[in-house]
Prior knowledge:
The complex is a heterodimer of chains A (246) and B (352). With 246 residues, chain A is α/β, with parallel strands linked by helices. In chain A, 37% of the residues lie in helices and 15% in strands. The model of chain A has no long low-confidence stretch (mean pLDDT 96). Chain B has 352 residues and is an alpha/beta fold. Chain B has 2 domains: 4-226, 3-Layer(aba) Sandwich (Rossmann fold), CATH 3.40.50.970; 231-344, Rossmann fold (3-Layer(aba) Sandwich). Classes of the chains: A alpha/beta (246), B alpha/beta (352). The A-B interface holds A 16, 41-44, 46, 53, 56-57, 60-67, 70, 72-78, 80-82, 84-86, 102-103, 106 and B 21-22, 24, 48, 50, 52-54, 56-58, 60-65, 67-68, 70, 72, 86-87, 90, 94, 193-197, 199, 201, 203-206.
Amino acid sequence: MAISRKVPELIDKQNGFCPGCGHGIVTRLIGECLQELGQENNVIFGIGVGCSSLLGAVVQADRLHCSHGRVGAVATAMKRVNSDNLVIAYQGDGDAYSIGIGETTSAAYRNERFTAIIINNTNYGMTGGQMSNTTMPGQKTSTSIHGRDCSVTGMPIRFPELVATQFNPAYSARGSVHNTVNITKTKKYIKNALEAQINKEGYSVVEVLSPCPTNWGLNPVDSMERIVGELIPYFPLGEFKSREAK
Amino acid sequence: MSDMIKGNEAIAEAAIRAGARLYAGYPITPSTEIMEYMSWRMEEVGGTFIQAESEIAGINMIIGGAACGVRSITASSGPGISLKQEGMTTLSDEQLPAVVVNTVRYGNGIGTLLSAQCDYHRETRGGGNGDYRCIVLCPDSIQEAVDLTVLAFDLAEKYRMVSVLMTEGALAQMMEPAVMPEMRETKRFPWGFDGKYTNKKIGIFERNSLTEAVELNEKYRSVKENEQRWESGYLEDAEYVFVSYGLPGRSTIGAVEELRKEGWKVGFIRPIIAWPFPEKAFMEVNPEVKGFVTVEANATGQMVEDVALTVKKILEKNVPVYCNPHVYGVPAIGSIKKDFHRLVSGEIKEVY
């Protein structure tokens, strides 16, 4: 039987992401998951600063555009006072892992019962492609023009692994949107995370590897290939903490 | 006779009774007892207490709670409030009401543990980016701190602004008898998030700064018109008018009473709300007044600027404005009187 696939009403608005960007795909996945879980009228978004800010113009839901990096703290309180609403922190790698690493990590550490969806495109997209905490060794950005020197800037952070091994979250995973197989898997991860939240199991996080053709200086196809050839070997895909059988 | 209670605990209990149901913060002397009290009291009334990992996280949790329509309060002191400025301008931008207690301690940078009034400029001007003001309430007793805590919530919600309860280290740590307000019925504010998108929101790129500026000016004009609060005395025949708030204000009133008995024609204005500044109080002042004197617990004199501007606006003539900054602590009555005599003899020059 043919299934018609409609854009969920929650996100049926034109977005401002660049051509070839992965944010739009993840936005769609979130919309579909919320719809399939019957939660599209029971959700609050805490939105980060950066390209993730553009989500605010797309989702027709309760949403707060938070100060740069502070979503982890804002979402903590939203979930504590509105425990029956789904609370989603939507951030990029710069917002979540650089300027907001304190708030992001502390919320995970406390096992706050919201879901963080973090888009990792290995640079600060909105400001024009500066080095971030997930920029790959040797990657050229506008603040690492000779390539990232990890001996003085640190190695790219692997947050879902950190959370899964050091804390006690309900769910931790990393997906990618470079092809349909992985888009489907990523959707499953997001759904698992939201289900963990619905069941009040604890903190859930899904990081998503996402292409940034504009700032990588690559066309969309080459950007997808970069994810496969360069990013996935360092940022492995999969679940690092799966939901315990209920 | 009411029970003795410590300043910080009185503020915390008053906030609970006013309907506060979220506290998030980080401890800092001399405000810490507010947080300690809230840590167990909030649970008793079914509210939410969160020990934040930092001052910045604390104020952002207040943003999250306020966005959901919950009466929210945080407390800190000087350097901690510096870290909260980002959150306070965000609350102002989103028109989310909240109460921030600044238990002021003396000093720049990390500061000291001494009671002071050195944060007057920061609180009355708004220390974050942009064009916003907070309503700043400055009690001179524990009873007034209790009353102003309730008022701080009411005004914050009436105008959708941040209220700053600007107390002082000494007021926070001392004990006095105080009557607590009745416990209010708590309710969620209808503009809060409910997950159903009941309240539609303008997209971040669809906001019109020009029309928002008109609305902002209208709101602040209304606050200035309606919310000035002060205590004053002996202004009709005063040759010199003291202006002082908080505990130094209380001490100044004592000095004025003694000077009156000694035959000096002096009066006082004690701002109870520092922003909006009580300009209306100056309309009651003797037109032949010879000078205004601020008594402040800071190093450089801060409120003196507001007094000078108000004198220019209300009295429309060049009356000298003096300042006696006592750096920290609560100036003794004798010390205020001594400074006054030096001023009258010409030893202390006017600032404006």
